Amino acid sequence: MNPHKFEIAKLVDTQNPQQVLDEVKTIVSMVFTRFDFEPVNRVFNDILKLFGGEYRGYRACSTEYHDLKHTTDATLATTRLIHGAVVNSEKYSQKGALLGIISSLLHDTGYIQKCGDDSGTGGKYTLVHIERSIDFMHKYFRKNNFSKDDFEICRNILRCTGFKTKINEIRFKSKETEILGKILGTADLLGQMADRTYLEKLPFLYYEFKEAKMDMYSSELDLFEKTLEFYDFTQKRFDTELGGVNRFSIRHFEKRWNIARDLYADAIEKNMNYLEHILKDRQKGHRSFLRRGRYPQLLEKSGL
User: Fold this and answer.
1) Residues 6 or more apart from 117 whose CB is under 8 A from it?
2) Is residue 227 part of a domain?
3) Count of domains in the chain?
4) Is 3 inside any structural domain?
5) What DSSP character marks residue 258?
6) What is the pTM of this model?
7) Contact 272, 231 (CB under 8 A)
């Protein structure tokens, strides 16, 4: 098969959380033959419960952009980058890989509302979601007997997802932890921007920002237009603050799938090209071009 015909969305059914977990395990097993998956299984199942409204003390996820799929997409991207780094002769411990994956699973728990928090959606926490995620992680780690060191490592890894975070100012416990933080910060962006329904989800991102009283976008269309600028911002961030760890993507796809291409970069470029096409046609309006997945119907039903 012509490798140029491969699309990242066709490799794994990312709509199915169990298939994502299975792929994560497959990738990790390529690196560590005796990896203990019990902690990964436990955290993964608890995240499913948390986002599904079955975790004690919390409501179901109420944000359509920062949803369960975004978390599983980021986790899969994190695992792929760790694998690509190892293929690239970088050294990682089993414990480091474990904590990197767990950090990715917990990185957006700050959007989940507690029981009794009945106003609006978790989007109102956009500006503080990282600290809320760290707070959830702290409580979760204590409840599940993770060590204080584990928490401090994962806290610093998770902080790297913040756009305003100065990674060089974080006091990492090791170089490995620093790279894992940069990997999660990169994976968080790759997972969402390479999603084949990325553009369909953007209206929901706008309303999350609006609910959080963030005024950098004057309208939904303004967010679409500035997403091209955001793409340029991410490319610079990959190369600078995040240390260029996105280069490990191609090593993963080459080893795992025998495809010598960066399929994340390919998918993001396709999304940006289609976005440019959308923005050229002012008469139809940007929403008329959004047809993938459940999001167009959900947007119409929501009345937003």
Assistant:
1) 59
2) yes
3) 1
4) no
5) S
6) 0.96
7) yes
The confidence band for 5, taking pLDDT boundaries of 50, 70 and 90, is low
Looking at this protein, which amino acid is placed at residue 277? H
| Measured distance CA(237)–CA(92) in Å, rounded | 23
Give first-to-last CA distance, the chain, whole Å. Answer: 43
With 0-12 / 13-18 / 19 or more C-beta atoms within 10 angstroms meaning exposed / middle / buried, residue 72 is buried
212: amino acid identity, one letter: A
The CA-based angle 244-249-255, given to 5 degrees, is: 140
> Can you tell me whether residue 260 is helix, strand or coil?
coil
Residue 300's pLDDT band, with cuts at 50, 70 and 90, is confident
C-alpha 65: how far from chain center? 11
Torsion angle of the four alpha carbons 294, 300, 303, 304, in this order, in degrees rounded to the nearest 10: 70
Distance of alpha carbon 96 from alpha carbon 175, whole angstroms: 11
Instruction: Supply 28's token pair.
Output: 């990790």
Is position 120 within any domain? yes
Q: Residue 175's domain spans which residues? A: 13-302
Q: Is residue 260 domain-resident?
A: yes
CATH code of the domain in which 56 resides? 1.10.1300
* Phi, psi values for residue 4, rounded to 5°: -70, -15
- Please state, in angstroms and rounded to a whole number, the distance separating the CA atoms of residues 133 and 106: 7
The two three-digit tokens of residue 183, written as one number: 């990997």
For the segment 43-89, what is each residue's pLDDT rounded down to a tens digit?
999 999 999 999 999 999 999 999 999 999 999 999 999 999 999 99
